[in-house]
Amino acid sequence: MSGLPNCPKCNSEYTYEDGMMFVCPECAHEWSKDASADAEDEDTKVVRDAVGNILQDGDTVTIAKDLKIKGSNSVVKVGTKVQNIRLVDGDHDIDGKVPGFGPMGLKSQFVKKVGAEQQV
């Protein structure tokens, strides 16, 4: 194993260094070493709340809008606290236990982080 990144265009493992560039001998694609470092940072998904605060696992959030629960006549009211959230992949990017309703998937655009000023 050479420790060099695979080609971002064809995923070839036979890349080599040429000065400040990486080169793929199979498809002739060239990219800078800085671009490969940026690509690694893009793999980390950043989840933000309704006002732009960055959310992390274990945070406490409040509901920012009345949310109707599908298949039910119930509504989760504004200001309901959800503690110890977990970030997940998918359409609903937060898993948490909503008091009075149980485990539920939430969208980050409908919650606000508790105890944080806007960080944007």
Automatic annotation (TrEMBL):
Domain Protein YjdM C-terminal span(s) in chain numbering: 47-114
SUPFAM superfamilies: Prokaryotic SH3-related domain, Zinc beta-ribbon
Pfam families given in the database record: YjdM, Zn_Ribbon_YjdM
Entry superkingdom: Bacteria
Domain Protein YjdM N-terminal: 4-32
UniProt family annotation: Belongs to the YjdM family.
Protein name per its UniProtKB record: Alkylphosphonate utilization operon protein PhnA
